[in-house]
Task: inverse folding
């Protein structure tokens, strides 16, 4: 009997000092658990003389009930204290949220996303390709063999003799056509590299490649797509003009001009008095390239274009120097809104 009383005193006084749910749980296991102290007392009944067993058993059960309700009460007390503590410590003043400065998308990201979204809505799928590219995909697969003069305009950074930083997103044309038969309708936005640096050229800049290959694709499909892009980027009155050009992987090739968004085509300093601004290179995919990628050039035709994202952003926002994009000057970046 004295053991029972002693256990009650020890358990209740330790319980009173409990300050956490975890220590309460540990205490509960210590006394009421399967191998706990109180359970141990119950098991010792068998060592008592038979006449003492009923009273002893009743007392132990009484204590168990008492302890169980004491534990339950303490547990709800501690839970309430914990809740109050969290309400106090984790208080959030929602009216302070307005004090946080808003970030903004970088103008290159903004323009890349705007153009991609317009093309995605027209059914183009978006691909990404490697920035470290082989000479094969960057040049040879695009009908630019070693020593071809077109390589001069695209000097770049070589990692080995045959591995380089891609100079254009066009290698993705060959990579995709090798794997997939038409219909093909893809864009590939990404970084490209050239050893060039002045107010309008940067050693790293961004392009978006476009490629459509299917039956009966013509230059008119290219023009329609670019007109749709131009009117959404620069306003409904923007006109698109094709001038003959040359790229080894397109035939015929065109240089694409838009009416100057600054003067509306009248002639100003931005368009050097011509009323037109050159924005991208494009053309019909050269049958030689189709065939070398395993696509039947009698059955299928395609168009491709490659536009410079910085160039479009410079025209759209009147930015005079490409280097402003990479200087991370907050006064510049903050102008591009939310
Ligand atoms: N890759 C060319 C360049 O960077 C642009 C281009 C893309 C031209 C697709 C024709 C077709 O100059």
Result:
């Amino acid at each position: 009997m004295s053991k029972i009383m002693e256990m009650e005193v020890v358990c209740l006084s330790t319980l009173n000092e409990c300050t956490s749910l975890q220590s309460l749980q540990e205490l509960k296991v210590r006394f009421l658990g399967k191998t706990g102290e109180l359970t141990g007392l119950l098991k010792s009944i068998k060592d008592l003389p038979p006449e003492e067993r009923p009273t002893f058993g009743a007392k132990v059960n009484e204590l168990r009930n008492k302890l169980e309700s004491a534990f339950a009460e303490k547990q709800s007390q501690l839970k309430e204290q914990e809740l109050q503590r969290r309400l106090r410590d984790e208080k959030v003043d929602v009216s302070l949220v307005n004090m946080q400065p808003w970030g903004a998308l970088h103008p290159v990201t903004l323009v890349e996303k705007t153009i991609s979204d317009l093309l995605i809505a027209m059914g183009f799928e978006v691909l990404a390709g490697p920035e470290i590219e082989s000479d094969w995909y960057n040049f040879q697969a695009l009908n630019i063999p070693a020593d071809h003069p077109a390589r001069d305009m695209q000097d770049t950074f070589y990692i080995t003799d045959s591995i380089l930083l891609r100079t254009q997103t066009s290698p993705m044309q060959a990579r995709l056509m090798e794997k997939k038969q038409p219909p093909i309708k893809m864009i590939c936005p990404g970084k490209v590299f050239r050893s060039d640096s002045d107010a309008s050229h940067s050693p790293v800049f961004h392009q978006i490649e476009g490629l459509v290959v299917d039956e009966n694709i013509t230059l008119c499909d290219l023009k329609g797509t670019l007109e749709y892009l131009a009117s959404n980027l620069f306003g409904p009155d923007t006109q698109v003009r094709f001038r003959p050009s040359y790229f080894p992987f397109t035939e015929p090739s065109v240089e694409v001009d838009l009416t100057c968004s600054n003067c509306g085509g009248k002639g100003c300093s931005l368009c050097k008095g011509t009323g037109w601004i050159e924005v991208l290179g494009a053309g019909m995919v050269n049958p030689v390239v189709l065939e070398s990628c395993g696509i039947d050039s009698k059955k299928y035709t395609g168009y491709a274009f490659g536009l410079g994202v910085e160039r479009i952003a410079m025209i759209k926002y009147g930015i005079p120097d490409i280097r402003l994009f990479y200087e991370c000057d907050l006064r510049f970046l903050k102008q591009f809104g939310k």
